[in-house]
Amino acid sequence: VTDDVAALVAAAANGSRVALARLLSAIEAGGDPQRAVARLTYRTTPAYAIGVTGAPGAGKSTLTDQLLGVALSRADVDDVSQVAVLCVDPSSPLSGGAILGDRIRMQGHATDERVFIRSMATRGHLGGLSMAVPDALMALSAAGFPLVVIETVGVGQMEVEIASAADTTVVVTNPGWGDSTQAAKAGLLEVADLFVINKADRPGVRETRRDLEQMLDLGAPRPWRPRIVETVATVGDGVDGLWQVVEEHRVYLNESGELARRRRTRATAELSRALALAAASRATDVTGAAGFEQLVDAVLGGTTDPYSAATSLLASS
Amino acid sequence: VTDDVAALVAAAANGSRVALARLLSAIEAGGDPQRAVARLTYRTTPAYAIGVTGAPGAGKSTLTDQLLGVALSRADVDDVSQVAVLCVDPSSPLSGGAILGDRIRMQGHATDERVFIRSMATRGHLGGLSMAVPDALMALSAAGFPLVVIETVGVGQMEVEIASAADTTVVVTNPGWGDSTQAAKAGLLEVADLFVINKADRPGVRETRRDLEQMLDLGAPRPWRPRIVETVATVGDGVDGLWQVVEEHRVYLNESGELARRRRTRATAELSRALALAAASRATDVTGAAGFEQLVDAVLGGTTDPYSAATSLLASS
User: Fold this and answer.
1) Of A7, B77, B167, B285, which is most buried with the most CB atoms under 10 A?
2) What is the Cα–Cα distance from A278 to A301, expressed in whole angstroms?
3) Structure pTM?
4) How far away is chain A from the Cα of B279, in angstroms, using its nearest Cα?
């Protein structure tokens, strides 16, 4: 398996989209295939990751599509020769490769060779998206993508966790009070580096901005105060400005040392999760191991209890 | 702590309800206190456990109350000198000691010295009710209760799991189709040894019975075909008959060897859960241990990946 994975990583780094897709499928599959890919791809410097999140219907895919256009048009200046988009839907058990809706909404770049779009879902394996997303980010990094957009559907705890895999987190809202309140509830206010009020040609923009500013005023002061940008993604209005603020944030992250701090926090969380996974898989192994049935007998016979038996099983394995 | 727990177990075995209540609080608290109690109480032969489950409002508490009356009135014949009731609400984060509603509904025995009633909830600790209920059963066994009724609110996966801690599982339905369909969906059909159509003075009893019989016909044939008993718990109608079928099932369990098989399955499940808990707590310990930060650095530096780092941390700890 490792030889195969090494060949796939090499091919992906050489530009093979088929090889890259197979690496991402291995990550989605979980278990040994996922670990085999990680062993090779974590050697790379991570790509710069922009998280785009917000309620369904806020216009995230259209905005992402427009953002790709701006990023690629400035390829010379910002060194963005190609861009990958990971579409993540934590609520959907459906998997992968292509969610038609996303491709349609990103039709501006569906046939662009410099753009790689991939939907990810869990297939219900242990650890799920909390490890699959960072692992996919590393696989895309190893494949030579300098920029990855992680687009997440929905606003909930899971989205906040996925957003934490990004360097710059963009929270998309719409004119109207509901969205921003929802964002605050879900903890997105804490992780947002940048708010977009999309569909800004509709009424209520001023109120939404005021609402967001007030919520930011109420929160703890931060060295980088999240910016609020207005866009009309369907016609591309404000997208240049959005890209500019994203770049400003990137410069801030680099110069302040915050990028290194964030990536350290990320690596710590990933190692903790990998530990939990390894421990759980160890417990499963022991369940099938010699000595287990005898200890069941001992519990039944009243000579031990499940906790003491578990401790001795783990110690002796 | 162990000395204190030993004193409490001894006092509980001597009839102290205060000591017993404190043991159950230790179990609810989880972690070390729960394990310390288990170490002493798993030496006992388990009490005979009747699970009573069904949708909210089906009349479980009233039925349990009546059942206690019948059981205690036959103390000489069936050797039931005292009975404990565990009220479990998996959906409620509220804890313990006394849920007023249960006590009120069981007012027939709220002041009866031979009856011990206790509500249990998780407090959100790892493992939760899946271990707390079997552990509480063993604590009540150690305190000398020959019979424990485990009453569960609601019909869902969690209820099925809790029901699996009982020797005889009674599923309470009401006249009308909805309940039995719900029971089938939740998997209660598979775990039920006995169906009660409570509130049998209302219309629809025949249809509900037919519905249940049909569902049982559709299922795999079982050596013990679940019985269907009609009751009107509020006035005590049919409760004697219910107790009789419970006793028949108990005799069947003993004579067929099914009781030993079920308790083995239970012990296996408990040991597996204890293993998962021990493994998870080991992972948490390692997160704070020496070497963890260096491995975070190694992941960041690209010399290892989270999975390999986790494996080496667990191996070296």
Assistant:
1) B167
2) 31
3) 0.72
4) 5
Q: Model ipTM?
A: 0.85
State both tokens at B303.
Answer: 């010399």
Phi and psi of A82, rounded to 5°? -155, 155
Task: Determine the residue of chain B that is closest to A293 in CA distance.
Answer: B268
Give yes or no for a contact between A229 and A196, defined as CB atoms under 8 angstroms apart.
Answer: yes
Q: Phi and psi (nearest 5°) for B132?
A: -65, -40
CB proximity under 8 Å: A 232-271 to B:
263-264, 267-268, 270-271
Residues of B in contact with A41 (CB under 8 A): 305
Kindly identify which residue of chain A lies nearest to residue B36, measuring between CA atoms: A307
B272 CB neighbours in chain A (<8 A) are 283, 287
A279–B275 CB contact, under 8 Å: no
pLDDT value, residue A128? 62
State pLDDT tens for residues B188-233.
777 899 999 999 999 999 999 998 898 888 888 889 999 999 999 9
Residues in chain B: 317
* Residues of chain A contacting B311 with CB distance shorter than 8 Å: 278
Residues of chain A with pLDDT under 70: 1-2, 76-78, 90-108, 110, 122-129, 154-157, 177-186, 317
Strands A48-54 and B48-54: unpaired
Residue B146 — very low, low, confident or very high, per pLDDT cuts 50/70/90? very high
